[in-house]
Specification:
- There is one protein chain.
- This protein has a 3-stranded antiparallel sheet, with no helix packed on it.
- The chain has 106 residues and is an alpha+beta fold.
- The two termini are 18 Å apart.
- It has helices at residues 17-22, 62-72, 77-80, 82-86, 97-105, and strands at 3-9, 26-32, 37-42.
- It has 2 domains: 1-44, no CATH class; 58-106, Thiol Ester Dehydrase, Chain A (Roll).
- It has 5 helices and 3 strands, in the order βαββαααα.
- GO terms for molecular function: (3R)-hydroxyacyl-[acyl-carrier-protein] dehydratase activity; fatty acid synthase activity.
Length: 106
């Protein structure tokens, strides 16, 4: 499935730079070929309240690992080679540690 992420700035009148981005609400739309669409809204820090929750799920596939290895330059065989990884303490391939960080910041 191919998905495309688009961002829509709702209030472009605020300042530039990091400080301006914090206070500016941003909507992110994910358009997927199977016509499934999810909307995620960025909430400004000042609007966050105790007890609020958010969730995100993604099935990590082989292509994700291969692309992350190519983009990050991390070609450690524990991520890419099942035979090598089977002889490590993990006993199987593992995803790159920063891959999860990349998902959170997406």
């Amino acid at each position: 499935m191919k998905c495309y992420k688009t961002r829509s700035i709702k209030d472009a009148t605020q300042g530039r730079g990091y400080a301006g981005r914090i206070n500016r609400p941003v909507s992110i739309l994910f358009h997927c070929q199977d016509s499934h669409m999810t909307q995620v809204t960025n909430t400004p820090y000042e609007a966050l309240e105790v007890g609020q929750t958010a969730s995100y799920s993604k099935k990590v596939e082989e292509r994700d690992i291969q692309l992350f290895a190519a983009m990050s330059g991390d070609h450690n065989p524990v991520h890419l080679d099942a035979e090598y990884a089977s002889k490590t303490m993990f006993k199987e391939r593992i995803a790159h540690g920063m891959f999860s960080g990349a998902l959170i910041s997406a």
